[in-house]
Each structure stands twice: as structure tokens, then as C-alpha cells.
Amino acid sequence: AGATVLLLARREARLRGVAARVEAEGGRAVVIPADLSDPASVDLAAEVVRSVAPVLAGVVSNAGRSVRRRALDGAPRADLERLLAVNVTGPARLMLALRPALVAGSVVVNVSSVSARHVGAPRWGAYQGSKAAFDLWVQAAVAEWPGVRGASVYLPLVRTPMIAPTRAYRFLPALSAAEAAEVVTLPFVRRVTRVAPWWLPGVEVAGIVCPGVLARGLAWAERVEARLERRR
Questions:
Q1: How is the chain split into domains, by residue range?
Q2: What percentage of the chain's residues is helix, strand, coil (to nearest 5)?
Q3: What ranges make up the beta strands (E) of the chain?
Q4: Alpha helices by DSSP H, 53-192
Q5: Residues linked to residue 60 through DSSP beta bridges, in sequence order
Q6: d(CA 20, CA 12)
Q7: pTM above the 0.85 mark?
Q8: Cα–Cα distances in angstroms (integers) from residue 84 to residues 21, 98, 210, in the given order
Q9: How far does the signal peptide extend, from start to end residue (predicted)?
Q10: What is the CA radius of gyration of the chain?
């Protein structure tokens, strides 16, 4: 309550819905439509942010686009370029433009994925690679900004429309959107630099100690899912 929240995303109607909920809780919300795949749109959004809030207490980067295809399936290059623009270059451009507003005590939270922390999974190369790339970029950039604290949030599955096309995910445990949002706020109330499910360190160790076993397990899961898809 009482906070001013700047909401930036592509779909203005949905932003206004979120803004209404913020204001119903006693806060103030500013809607800033922007397309992270369009550099001009990113620059304009950053200009609006700086005019409204010359100093930012924190930034949450939650941009994400998923393209699930085999690397050799001939996916249009435009799909890959848009994914990288939304997941990497667009958010990086925005973060750099907002750097003057980040002061000592500001917090930068990058919402990443557990998939950015384990070995490559079939059909997820573009998504995994882009999430891992931006996560490391943010960590390195924030390390150069005196007094600014960074945190990475590695979310597991979240029950949103983005995972709906993957049939196997219907049978796996997943956070609700509300639960995920609560997790994302943790770096603002605790001085943590990493938030992750309890089981992620084990997966990371497995990726170092026995990467082949983990890769074979992911490949097996991919084959099982492919059979399920053929039965649809």
C-alpha cells in the first residue's frame, strides 16, 4: 500500500487490469505499453519511466517468450530473433536506459527459470539459452553498479497460458501465478541474491557430476512426450 508501481508490457488492456488491482490495494500504478522487441518502443518506455520516477527503488524484469522447436526443424530465423529480442536484448537495452535511476539501495530482480540452470533439454535450446544469457548478463551488470543489489529468481513451472501447449506439463506440479508473484517479491523483503526451489541445487550438482545421465533423462522424457503428442 502506498507504493507507486510502473507497469511495462506489450498488452495495454491487461496492464490496466493490473493497475486497477494495485490501486484497489491503496497503491498508485502507471501503465507504460512497450514492445521489448522494438528498440524504439523500449527507448520511449525508458524515457517515460525516468520522467515519472527519476529514482527507482527496484526493477523486476519478467519478460519471457518461449519457442519450443527442434533446432533442425527449420524454424524461421525471425522467430529466434524475436525470442532473443524479448528475452535478452530488449530487457538489457531497457535496463541500461534505466541505469541512471538505479541508486544505492535499489534492487534489480531478474525472473529467470530453473531451465537456465541445468543441461540442455531437447526442443528448449532457444528458451534455455536466452534465459541463461540474460541471467548472467544482469548479474555481471549489477556487479558493476555500486550499491545496487541484484537477485535472480529461478521459477519452476508456473500454471500460465505459456505452458499450455506442452501436454506433459498438465500432469506436473506447478505454481499458480499468485504463488509465483509472491516468490518474486522475496528479494525486496530479504537480502537474498538467489531464490530457487529446494531441489534445484541437486539438479545443478547432477549437471556437473553426471551431465550425461541428466541429459539422457531429459531425452527420455522428450521421447515419452512425443509419443503422447502422437496419440492426440
A1: 34-200
A2: 55, 20, 30
A3: 4-9, 28-33, 56-61, 102-113, 149-155, 194-195
A4: 77-84, 90-98, 125-143, 177-184, 186-189
A5: 109
A6: 12
A7: yes
A8: 31, 20, 29
A9: none
A10: 19
Return left, alpha or beta for 105; rule: phi > 0 is left, psi -120 to 50 is alpha, else beta.
left
11 vs 35: CA distance, rounded Å: 9
CATH superfamily for 34-200 is NAD(P)-binding Rossmann-like Domain (3.40.50.720)
Residue 152 cell numbers, joined: 535472480
Active site residues: 127
What are φ and ψ of residue 6, in 5° steps?
-95, 120
Rounded CA-CA distance 52/50 in Å is 5
Q: Residue 111 class from Cβ within 10 Å (0-12 exposed, 13-18 middle, 19+ buried)?
A: buried
Cα–Cα distance for residue pair 221/198, rounded to 1 Å: 22
Contact 34, 41 (CB under 8 A): yes
